[in-house]
């Protein structure tokens, strides 16, 4: 990764320089329109419209499940990250799957919707944001979750749904605020949001962020630092035409912790000395007549250099006891993460008349991420299974030599054009969207010298308690007692996976309304998708294969019928598909696998939506079922084919909005049943899917008193537990858990608000990620934060 010096003033200077030129280009003075900023800023918990131009109807009239987390919900909860925000949507998990069942524990956002991985279905303003990193919400005003297969809307996708983050944009209004926040995990956060009318037809907006801290495990090492700046310029050329220019730059400098050691079955309990048979040579070459076998028993002390056997930790199988979660199992100075994000977007809208408008958006974005972080695993030997000779370090030591080294760069160039038609009258009307999307995405994943033992490649040298070249191991129970220093570094080998995807898509959406009682929605998308480049094959090494490609067309479609029994209620049934080509995440496979047809998900949903209390509260319910064909194989080294089947089905309930002028709620419940229906390995059939709790629910409510000056908020999130599948069995099961949340906000002055948040009041602890490497990641414990916001 290239190192860039981050200067917060660069964007401000660029925007400032552009504003006078934009203002001078105005056609003629005109009366400023009545601003919608106030309504937007005070929209409450219920958001009426999704941001996508393809979704022409309100959320209440759109025949699919859509959950929108409004800016007010995010602010009341003090939420600043995408993962934390998604706790407001039942049926969505931010758990990892673990190697052997869906990836390794990662520092990047990992989202699963209705049982299917949605990391490649994350969007910013409707444009794909495939790169892996942790997204801060400083420049986003709402988060939209669309559930079920919806390839017409998203393009290539996995079938569970998608997440779309909507950026803050300039408005024809003037407002500004600065906010500061501190919490009990040493986080210090400052944000600035300024929107100003700069001329009669020009407005600008700037958002700045600085945050540092986040030692949630209380190990005095883990830390996350982000500096970011975003700017938006709105230029209203005329009452029919507007141009927007948005920019965002962000730099993260983190010291992450990937997890804590997991106690395996062979490591659990007291040390049990092992026995083995050795052959004693008589010393005469080519003469085995006097050789004899002898049974050798291990010394009873697990720290004896000649010890071998099982157990030795004195702990139960599973995650470390909670009392040990504040131990640091890493190497200071070696483990780090750097992320550099740049995103620039140009948008143009023109309204020809009341019936026809067109809009075009172009985005250029880059994302560079460089990470070195350890996989802490308990050092152990398995002589009974033949997995190598004894290590002579005993089972009370933690091996810190295994690392996850990432050096990735993503580049995006995308252009979207949407033409919108409004036709008909009250007896029959149509809302039609015809669009074209052209995109070029590139992924460069540099192959580093991380593989091999700590001394195998010589790229890192460890000094342990003053001994240079020693193995990086620390005590399981007191890792801080061992002083480990690392010198050298992770370097690129000159080999890389370099892939480029080119997309050309055409899509049509049509909503037909027959009077006020019936509605028909139909949509389709054809996408020409070509992925080509190189990949690294081999375990622990890179054999660069070039000339690989995935080339084909994706056809997605959907249809829905809606009946309105009353003006404020609807019942609908919908059917849609989505297609996932090989290499959906810009990751090529072997030449044979690349030729396979796309995986396909098909969803059917029966739902109802009702608006109550003068349309301030939206109630919705849906039954759904998604079945997906998936990539299968005949085992390691065997042929691969599209033949497996997975299924997710269940129902969801939600209530969002205002019950009274003082009481607002956001509530969700999801019942989810996932299953492997068909697999070449019969033992896998009947297993569930990763990150798919059977029951999830959340409730958040806010009540205002004293004419709105005092706000009391609180809620809870519930999960019936999760199962981490590995080697066709439920390897780790997490029990049901409930977390409670509290907020007290006080308007101390007209322009000054003070807010106290307590997350996870009861300090409920559980496992959120598990990896077959031999480690796990727990959830965050209780965190108390105090924030102050000043409007000016």
Task: Characterise this structure.
The protein contains six helices and 46 strands. It is mostly beta strands. The strands form nine sheets. It has a 22-stranded antiparallel beta barrel. The longest helix has 16 residues.
Tally of DSSP β-strands: 46
Quote the beta fraction.
Answer: over 45%
Largest sheet: 22 strands, antiparallel, barrel
Would you tell me the structural class of the helices and strands? mainly beta
Shape: globular
Distance between the termini: 40 Å
The helix fraction, in percent, is under 10%
Query: Could you list the spans in which at least 5 consecutive residues all have pLDDT below 50?
Result: 1-41, 97-104, 381-394, 451-458
Count helical runs.
6
Cα Rg: 28 Å
Q: Can you give the mean pLDDT? A: 87
List the helices and strands and how they pair.
Layout: H1 9-24, H2 37-41, E1 66-69, H3 71-77, H4 82-85, E2 92-93, E3 112-113, E4 116-117, E5 122-124, E6 127-128, E7 140-147, H5 151-154, E8 161-167, E9 175-183, E10 188-199, E11 202-213, E12 223-236, E13 241-255, E14 260-263, E15 272-273, E16 275-280, E17 292-297, E18 309-310, E19 318-319, E20 336-353, E21 356-374, E22 377-378, E23 397-399, E24 403-424, E25 428-448, E26 460-464, E27 467-468, E28 473-475, E29 484-488, E30 492-514, E31 518-537, E32 543-566, E33 569-580, H6 591-594, E34 599-612, E35 617-633, E36 640-658, E37 663-678, E38 695-705, E39 710-719, E40 722-726, E41 729-734, E42 737-749, E43 752-759, E44 767-771, E45 775-778, E46 783-791
Parallel strand pairs: 5-8
Antiparallel strand pairs: 1-7, 2-3, 3-4, 5-6, 7-8, 9-10, 9-46, 10-11, 11-12, 12-13, 13-20, 14-19, 14-45, 15-18, 16-17, 20-21, 21-24, 22-23, 23-28, 24-25, 25-30, 26-27, 26-29, 30-31, 31-32, 32-33, 33-34, 34-35, 35-36, 36-37, 37-38, 38-39, 39-42, 40-41, 42-43, 43-46, 44-45
